[in-house]
Amino acid sequence: MADPRISHIELDEATILWRNADIEQERRIAIFDLIEENTFRPLRSVAAGHEGPYRLRLSVEDGRLALVIADDAAAPTETIVLALGRFRRPIRDYFAICDSYYQAIRRATAQEIETIDMARRGIHNNAAELLLERFEGKIETDFATARRLFTLICVLHIRG
């Protein structure tokens, strides 16, 4: 029976040079939420007879995102490599707005925090839409899964 979802996700820890407590919390929440509820259907794997669930490993090398997909027994099924050039600005904007948000939580009024949070969600949503476009013809997924994957892609870009 088909089970098109991610059952396990791993980030290339060698890619991540540094992260603070706020970013670590975002990473934990994104992974937890992703495993709890997601839709993930890599089209070449499905065509080869793999119906899920899938294990996913994310890494960044030479400005490209590598999604290493394996079946639930950890046997590799395919690797998808995406250029990240179009994500540079959304990642930079997301880091900047998150920094503002974390600072606001400590000092700002509720209205100021809400305004920053709305901007943060907007950037996040736009980046998820971009990720869905980049997955076109490669991976079928839903918006919530794309949002969580974008969060993890951001974590992979932390340089300290």
How would you sum up this structure, described in words?
This protein has 160 residues and is α+β, with helices and mostly antiparallel strands. The protein has one domain (6-156). Helix content is 51%, strand content 22%. It has five helices and six strands. It has helices at 21-36, 43-47, 88-107, 110-135, 143-156; strands at residues 6-11, 40-42, 54-61, 64-71, 76-83, 139-141. It has a four-stranded mixed β-sheet. The protein has a two-stranded antiparallel ribbon with strand order 2-6. A hairpin with a 2-residue loop joins strand 3 and strand 4. Helix 3 packs antiparallel against helix 4 (110-135). The chain is elongated. The mean pLDDT is 91.
- Major sheet strand order: 1-3-4-5
Q: How many H/I helices?
A: 5
* Overall spatial form: elongated
Strand proportion, as a percent range, falls in 15-25%
Structural class: alpha+beta
Average predicted confidence as pLDDT: 91
Q: What is the share of helical residues?
A: 40-55%
Low-confidence stretches: none
* Total E-strand runs: 6
Q: Main beta sheet: strand number and arrangement?
A: 4 strands, mixed
Radius of gyration: 16 Å
- Taking the alpha carbons of the first and last residues, their distance comes to 44 Å
Output the helix-strand order: EHEHEEEHHEH
Number of structurally distinct domains: 1
